[in-house]
Amino acid sequence: MEGRERVIEVHDLRMRYGTVDVLEDVSFEVHSGEVVTLLGPNGAGKTTTIEILEGFRMRSDGSVSVLGVDPAAGSEDWRARVGVVLQSWRDHARWTPRALLTHLGRYYEPYSTPERPRPYEIEQLISMVGLEDHAEQKIRTLSGGQRRRLDVAVGIIGRPELLFLDEPTAGFDPQARREFHDLVHRLSDLEETTILLTTHDLDEAEKLADRILILAAGRIVADGSADQLARRVTRDAQVRWSRDGEQFVHATPDATSFVRDLFAQYGDEVADLEVRRATLEDTYIAMVQQHETGGADSTVNAFEGVKS
Amino acid sequence: MSHTAHAVKTGMNRGWTEFKLSIRSPQDQSFYLFTSAVVMLYLFFNRDDVIEGTTLTYPTVALPSIIGAMIAFGLIIGPAYSLAMEREDGTLLRAKAVPNGITGYVSGQLVLHSLGLIPSIALLLIPGALLFDDLMSQGAEGWFTFAWVFVLGLLATLPIGIIIGSLVPGVQKVGTWGMLPILILLGISGIFAPMQGLWGWVQTVAQIFPIYWLGLGMRSAFLPEEAAALEIGGSWRTLETVAVLGAWAIVGCIVAPIVLRRMARRQSGSVVEAARNDAAQWVR
In terms of CA atoms, which chain A residue is nearest residue B27? Predict the structure, then answer.
């Protein structure tokens, strides 16, 4: 990541409502072309963070730079470079997806450049999000998943350099989710769009993200790839096997040599072998539990080493 | 073309689209027809009342006043409700998320609510012309007066609607802060009966607000010169009409963008989410 342009820079970001700090000392960076996921329990401050970055909310303290600009003072030119998909919309009930996309796309016309033609061609966009069969239907009559796809289409219509997605796949069925993941990969690979998304789906975070940030109690408590985070919680992998009908479980940091020794000793007697590394879910649950029982500080210390 | 001008054009197209969607919607069609039917019935039952000192009947005098009131009502309550609702359903936030989107949104509102008056007025004027005599006795000169009173009235009242819609805490409160004061003003502004019958201080209050002057301006457009005798001071007071409506227009066009910008700055996904939860919660 060194040498790549920093698209988002956050230092000591603080958000206070009355006397309560919702965010304290949040610091992180996102580089050009990265897909970064913001994870955290409900109320951890994910949406607040993303709204500050989108320029929709004023912060209490700290410095924030998005595409080189403080979002609190972001101009309309800056706005044209950023795409936003928020959590809930019920707007434009009488419009059709095609009419709404055509209308909203027009706002981006003055910001078109040869390298980044804006807006997207509407029909291409409609098929990218799989709304071909519903493009002429009233938005009010779309299903939750279809509405969400329309939201994503609106978010990317201006071919953004940076895209914010707040729980984009809520209400998606597994197939729609898979298609959405393909779309994110496509945006990231072909359009070099930098993406920051929040989700509750750990599987999704693991599939999509180059890097995962875990936000708990208003702080970033972990920052790294899914693998790096998993190793931080436990270096041990679980090895399960059976021999003569008896089940065995062993935890070891070096599963490969353990299994090699196992076969050397028992050979064909070993059956039902399974090696399982800590998943992101294990990491996440461990971290949240640690935070809930031990307080934020110990959690922060435990994950300090992960920060790259 | 500057980016702002482009956004204004895009927003005006938006207003046109919304107007087309509105007149195709059974919900809005029934609103237009219902209002027109109520007014027509009211006038029809009073069709034989002759106004003292003239040869004019009550409907002839009242209809222009009602058209004036309709303009004020439509341009204050219409945008107030639109704005309050579209803050809560995320339309405004959607506008905020695109470059110059708020400029476009406001241009759209302007076009939508101005066009929305056309069916309202047509549904009063057409049956009115068929049922009652002496309407628009001044010909081309009258239509010219109608046009400038309409435009000035629009500029005087629409910003008020935008200000109310920006300031009310939620859709339900438009009733208290928008509807109620407007209905009171309609009652005292000489729309349904000459205001000379009211106490002096009430007349003074009514003459501060644009509704009275819109009614007066419309009467001056539609009625023959002799009807001016029914007005305060026995005159159409054209200069005063221009002055009061013009003052409201200038103040409104300065204040409304400031209030709107402040309100728009506060919009975020969480605000929309909170409004959605509030709306779902009836018992508190």
Answer: A94
Give the pLDDT of residue A194. Answer: 96
For chain B, the domain total comes to 1
B278 domain-assigned: no
Residues of A in contact with B86 (CB under 8 A): 91
pTM across the whole model: 0.86
Inter-chain touch A56–B93, beta carbons under 8 Å: yes
CB atoms B14 and A86 under 8 Å: no
Nearest CA-CA distance, residue A42 and chain B, Å: 13
User: pLDDT grade, residue A301 (50/70/90)?
Assistant: very low
Q: Which residues span the domain enclosing B243? A: 3-270
| B188 neighbors B198 (Cβ within 8 angstroms) | yes
- Residues 6 or more apart whose CB falls under 8 angstroms from that of B55 comprise none
Q: Which of A94, A106, A111 sits opposite B21 (nearest CB)?
A: A94
Omega within 30 of 0 (cis) for the link into A119: yes
* Yes or no, beta carbons of A86 and B93 under 8 Å apart: yes
ipTM: 0.86
| The two structure tokens encoding residue B14 | 């938006």
* B275 located within any domain: no
- d(C-alpha A270, C-alpha B84), whole Å: 69
The answer to whether residue B281 sits within a structural domain is no
The verdict on residue B63 lying in a domain is yes
Per the model's pLDDT, the better-predicted residue between A118 and A297 turns out to be: A118
pLDDT in tens, B202-247: 999 999 999 999 999 999 999 988 888 888 888 999 999 999 999 9
